[in-house]
Design goal:
alpha/beta; D-Maltodextrin-Binding Protein, domain 2; 10 helices; 12 strands
Length: 276
Amino acid sequence: MKKIYLLITLVVGTLILTACGKAAENVISIVATQTPHSLILEEARPHLQAKGYELDITVVSDFTFGNPAVALGSYRANFFQHTPFLNQFNAGSDVLLSAIAHVHIEPLTAYSRTITSFEQLNSNSRILVSTSIPDRGRLLYVLYSYGIIGLREGANRLSATFEDIIEIESFGINVSNFIEPVAPQMLVPTFLAESDIDIAFINGNFALSTNLLENNPQVRRILVESTVDNPFANVLVVRDEDKGASWALALAAILESDTIRSFILERFGGYVVPAN
């Protein structure tokens, strides 16, 4: 009789472990920032459930957390960054992470309370930028695309630095016009607090999370980054060894679907746009 009880216990235990294993396999743990990333994931949740998967979303505000968390295996995926930021992490990491879906772009935009047109910029203008190095070439390229500055040969939106600026006589903008960079999350409060800032380059996620235009009617868009051939798409990231996993492919397909594209267009008012 004891042997029978033991056998039953072993069988039941095996079934429970198997069921738990399958349940765990179908749960996708993912790190995301609040806006717009977690909102997009919540929109994707029911579509993913229809495919047999569940999302376990951890929302963070620390941009340094997501990549190490996936590299160490604490989470299966992350969704918070653009490709150059990921490349910067991979360059210094022993664990390769891969982007498996290009979801949206947060156009880098210059906002102002003091001018109504970029043509009013001059040699005395004060320009606020963030400490984000991957965004440095990006904002300089926006200025370049509007003809406000020139860039040295070979400089592009991924590599340009302040040293690459060529002053255009009609504007007179050079490195001295840029204010001491502030942390990305401090861009909006600094911009609103200091009245002598002529333009501030603010990423779409920060402008969106503070409803910058809606809450501050005196603020207007002055320069907007083009989304054509834009390398700064925000991406879904997994460990390279997981990029062919069924759960990863399922989530990637949903995030790049027409359904999510339509949601982004309708929900975020131009602060965020689809990558494709």
